[in-house]
Specification:
CATH superfamily of chain A: MetI-like
Mean pLDDT of chain A: 79
Oligomer: heterodimer
Structural class of chain B: mainly alpha
Strand content of chain B: under 5%
Distance between the termini of chain A: 21 Å
CATH architecture of the largest domain in chain B: Orthogonal Bundle
Number of domains of chain B: 2
Low-confidence stretches of chain B: none
Number of helices of chain A: 14
CATH topology of the largest domain in chain B: MetI-like fold
Number of strands of chain A: 0
Amino acid sequence: MSDRARGHDGISGTGPSPLAGHPAGAPSIVRQAYERFRRHRLAMASSAALGVFIALALAAPIIQRYPPNAIDLGRGSLAPSLVHWLGTDTIGRDIWSRALHGARVSLAIGLLSTLISMTLGITVGALSGYYLGWVDMFLQRVTDVVMTFPSIVLMMTLVVFVGPGVTNTILIIGGVSWMGVARLARAEFLTLREQVYVEAARCLGAPDRRIMWRHLLPNAIAPVLAQGAFGVGQAILTEAGLSFLGLGVPLPTPSWGNMLEPAIQLQILRNAPWIWVPPAVLIVLTVLCVNFIGDGARDALDPRTLRGA
Amino acid sequence: MLAYVTRRVLVSLPVLFGVTLVVFVLVNLMPGDPATYFVNPELGGTAEQMAAVRARLGLNQPLEVRYVKWLAEAARGHLGYRIKNGDPVGSLIAQHFSATVLLVGVALSLGIAVGVSLGIVTALRQYSVWDYTLTALSFLGVSMPAFITGIFGLYTLALRLPLFPAGGLVTVGAPPSFWDTLYHVILPACMLSFGYLAMFMRYTRFSMLEVLHQDFMATARAKGLGERRVIGVHALRNALLPVVTAIGLSLPGLVVGAVFIETIFSWPGMGSLYLDAVQARDYPLIMGLDLVSAGAILLTNLLTDVAYALVDPRIRYR
């Protein structure tokens, strides 16, 4: 990391020499990254907004006004009012309460499936970039094959296999979105494995596992993590898309995607916008925030890309 | 050039092989025995009858034999028959394929034309009001998936303001004409292109900014070339190279978006067919669609790379 930070002049104070280790008083790498992140105003504002969303999602059982799955056929498709802040859906469920609980489901799926795809991607990329040879050849062809299918096609086929459900949705999204991370991690490992310090570690008799865990991974992780932030946004969108098609989170569990599902009927789309506007707006706002945070994280963690795009 | 194309095709072959293998294995691992479509053991079908059906369908042969046979049939365009009503899968896909190509083609053209132009403009006017506004908007663009732009577009421009039809490929009952199709494709295509337009704009802007600061730009100006030629030829030609790659890479995503747009606008393409197949668990149709969509993407990746090599001679000799 430190040799990459060299030549980046945006760090306040006296930048530590890349060779001098970590002199007392100089800001640590994490501190420097945070300082860079803080300067990205949109990323900071987005973090705050996302924090509010997460707080609301966590507090859902307290601030809900009705049970999210309580059906009241006599009070279906009501426009927003003081009784139902965001109105009710066709079978009388309170949209505000469902949006809150949907946030829990959608955010959790976004985070957990990204965790899976990152783990898979880093593992594949690390093995590929470190061992090269036939391991690399094989893993790269596997990546090529998976990338050739449009992701939704692969996911829909898998849903037919295992059926819809929250856990299955997490596994499926995680299982088909690791390729970008794998490519990135492979490139990082590929350059890092040739560094002199790695050679030194090898000379000292460090086993491959130790070299990969202790010497390569910590140096390769920053740009991969920044990519991971974008992954969360993408995963939230994917969940919403799958649930929108009725192939993700099954009812009655609310998710932002399946709350959007009724919009497919022209009658509801035209006459009851309060049913589909809240989940749509929440999805876009959340993903927008996550993308801004990702942008800030990339600037902060991967100074090479700090060129204005 | 020929050597490059040959090499590129050879690299694609193992991927194509992998794709067919994945499709075959996935569908054969699916729960349920196809023989039970014809003989139901719970309704008194005997083991002999089952065995006879399995022999007739070739299901008693080893997996690798079935794979090779299936591959040979698929190569000739025979993709089996739909379980629902026995329609041949191959011709069914062919019918829907053109509708999707039309939708994705119009969306891609729109995205490239508008996105690249905006990217050039914002790069030339860096730090201007236009640059800030469009760059901020592009973030919104890449954060809006096709199913949300589609819903909002349908609501505002077809239902609230009835400027465009709310769905379908042609006006029912009207004679088919170019203008009628254009009238139907324009709204779904615009909604599909929205995110990609933003992406192409960002790529073009970034790449253009990088080129504009290179030494050969000063050289071109020092030679006394006019600004129009410096920007339009020297800068643009180099800046657009990475954009070609971005366009190629965006294709799988566009197909994904098309699935949603087709569902929202009842567009009779591969996406709505796929959803149909998935909901009915129609394995032969799923298998056929998986194969065709992956094959189409593989082919366009190949074409993108060849196009790239055509415009950038450096690639050919790598």
